[in-house]
TrEMBL record:
The chain crosses the membrane at residues 60-84, 90-107, 114-132, 152-173, 193-214, 226-244. The keyword Cell inner membrane does not apply. It comes from Arthrobacter silviterrae. Pfam families: DUF3159. Residues 1-33 are annotated as: Disordered. This is DUF3159 domain-containing protein.
Length: 250
């Protein structure tokens, strides 16, 4: 955890290739970027977990939230699936899932680490548990994820349509391009393609999981949710990074 690890460059509110501060940054032709969108991009970059290694590749582990972030995302659902598969007891399965999410939250509180991910996680698990318990259908534990995926799809498609693709905002700052890529046709095209890749990931989840949901196949649905969760997201992000890489980016 040490000096032998490769150094990594994290996103910051201003990158060496950007004009720092809250003012709109001029592009290569001297045209100013809309300040509001530039500031939004900076804010997104600052909050992003994207990390670029010195060799130019994206750190997929960091992008997925690190070991703890992955555990917080995966374990509540895994516990629910395992317990339900073994016992077929919905109440016990839901209690186990919520308890795991609560443990992560308490651990963050005790260690005084940022609570955002843990709070979002326990809120999502609690809502999922409520829906499943209220309806008495175990498959409804996964219903919230469908709405979340659909919302991401809509947001990313809109960002592409208005020429501010989400991955351009995130990757642009990781590569010290700021938002100047918007005035370079080939870079805008590349970031739109990259964002479409993540749209495809979200759409694939719905295409595979919704039929299982409507069929009430909880075991298969839970397994697909795990397989198509962090692993598929990380793979899609890696492909999007490669697709949008500038020729000079090593």
């Amino acid at each position: 955890m040490k000096s032998s690890e490769p150094r990594r460059r994290k996103l910051t509110n201003s990158s060496p290739g950007d004009d720092a501060g809250n003012k709109a940054a001029p592009d290569a032709a001297g045209t100013e970027q809309p300040g509001g969108f530039a500031e939004l991009a900076q804010e997104m970059a600052a909050k992003s977990s994207l990390v670029r290694k010195e060799n130019g590749h994206i750190d997929l582990l960091a992008a997925a939230g690190g070991i703890r972030g992955i555990a917080e995302s995966v374990l509540p659902g895994l516990v629910f699936l395992v317990v339900f598969t073994m016992t077929r007891d919905l109440a016990v399965s839901l209690v186990g899932s919520v308890a795991v999410a609560a443990v992560f939250l308490v651990a963050r509180l005790a260690q005084h680490t940022p609570l955002t991910q843990a709070l979002a996680g326990i809120a999502g698990v609690a809502l999922s548990a409520f829906l499943a318990m209220k309806t008495g259908k175990a498959e409804n534990f996964y219903a919230v994820g469908f709405y979340t995926n659909a919302a991401y799809i809509v947001a990313m498609v809109v960002s592409i349509a208005v020429r501010w693709p989400v991955l351009g905002l995130l990757f642009g700052y990781a590569r010290n391009e700021g938002v100047r890529w918007r005035h370079k046709t080939e870079r805008l095209r590349a970031y739109r393609a990259a964002t479409w890749i993540l749209v495809g990931v979200m759409a694939a989840r719905l295409a595979v999981q919704l039929p299982l949901y409507f069929a009430g196949n909880v075991d298969a649905l839970g397994a697909m949710r795990l397989i198509m969760g962090v692993p598929l997201y990380a793979f899609g992000l890696w492909v999007a990074w490669l697709v949008s890489r500038p020729v000079k980016d090593s």
